[in-house]
């Protein structure tokens, strides 16, 4: 969804939601964090191919390892 305009992102999120609501598991590889946080029930975060976090969106938002890897913050 990165690179799409806001209208396109909203449409894509709705399409994915409809598929998920049919009971179909959807795996998303995406960098649009707003869309990911509003759509996904659980997240797995990779950094250079290594899993650094897994959990609910709320847990990932406060994960120090994720912040350090992707934002350069979060302490040592």
How is this structure best described in words?
It is a single chain. This protein has 76 residues and is α+β, with helices and mostly antiparallel strands. The chain has one domain (6-71). It is built from four helices and two strands. It has helices spanning 6-21, 33-39, 57-61, 64-71, and strands at residues 43-47, 50-55. The chain has a two-stranded antiparallel ribbon with strand order 1-2. Strand 1 and strand 2 (50-55) form a beta hairpin. The longest helix has 16 residues, at 6-21. The radius of gyration is 14 Å and the shape is globular. It starts with 5 loop residues before the first helix and ends in a 5-residue tail after the last helix. The model has no long low-confidence stretch (mean pLDDT 91).
């Amino acid at each position: 969804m990165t690179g799409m305009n806001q209208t396109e992102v909203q449409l894509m999120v709705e399409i994915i939601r409809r598929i998920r609501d049919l009971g179909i598991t959807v795996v998303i590889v995406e960098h649009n964090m707003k869309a990911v946080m509003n759509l996904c029930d659980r997240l797995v975060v990779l950094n250079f191919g290594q899993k650094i976090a897994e959990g609910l969106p709320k847990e990932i938002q406060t994960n120090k390892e994720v912040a350090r890897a992707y934002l350069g913050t979060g302490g040592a």
